[in-house]
Amino acid sequence: MKQPLRKVVIPAAGLGTRFLPVTKAVPKEMLPIVDTPTIQLIVEEAVKAGAAQVVLVTGRGKSSIEDHFDRNFELEEALSRKNKMELLEQTRRIGEMVGLVSVRQKEPLGLGHAVLAAKRAVGDDWFGVMLGDDLIDSEEPAIGQIARVSMQTGKAAVALMPVADDQTHLYGVAAGKPQADGNLLVDRIVEKPSRGTAPSNLAVIGRYVLPPDIFPMLEKMKPGAGGEIQLTDALAVLAQQGRLVGVRFEGERHDAGDRLGYLQANVAYALKRPELRDGLLAYLRTAVQR
Predict the structure, then answer these.
(1) Residue ranges of the chain with pLDDT lower than 50?
(2) How far is 66 from 126, CA to CA, in rounded Å?
(3) What topology does CATH give the domain 7-257?
């Protein structure tokens, strides 16, 4: 990548079955971390990294995500009448945060298929991909860290994080040649390897910076793991071509797509809020003694 990151794709078409029954009517991306929808935290990270356009890949029943990033004039007028200016500014900021383009993934055929659905909106530009289940709390936005390495190397880049050996079957896993900067020139990447067969313990986490020629690769891909079109299979092609770097990012990652991880994220983000921290700590101390 030669230019700063300007476009980011956020797949948001999943059914969220792990969070039923709430996701029967509410998109999982709108579930709050304290009082902020998960998807908003992802978009804020993209904006902090310099993205000017977010391409949201959605499915049926996800219109509330688009509404969240639109202006709500009735709400703004009500807040103005009640002189709730701080809330008014907050609401307007969300509506003006970023240029949002929404495209439909008409069939749930995997992450690679979801990224491919964004082809026309992305065009011939390099772009980021951010998965909404992966919250990364860091001073420098995680997608910005990945983009910086991509610009320095001219290669595609993915976020990597070490995980326990008994957890590697839950992730895409990468291996390759360690670099002087602590990153990895990836030569192998496998989607959810069988237990005991992972090439390393470095899991791929949901931040990617990709070249536009990933799209013709995805168009030619046959269904892989789970009968889906896997982004990992296209990344494997880039790795074979010597065009993929794995980035050991800085920051704390929370798995908001898992019920326990989601609860942990809520606690972690609430503890960063001065108006909530003391009361929450007092409650937690009492709760663990029961």
Answers:
(1) none
(2) 24
(3) Spore Coat Polysaccharide Biosynthesis Protein SpsA; Chain A (3.90.550)
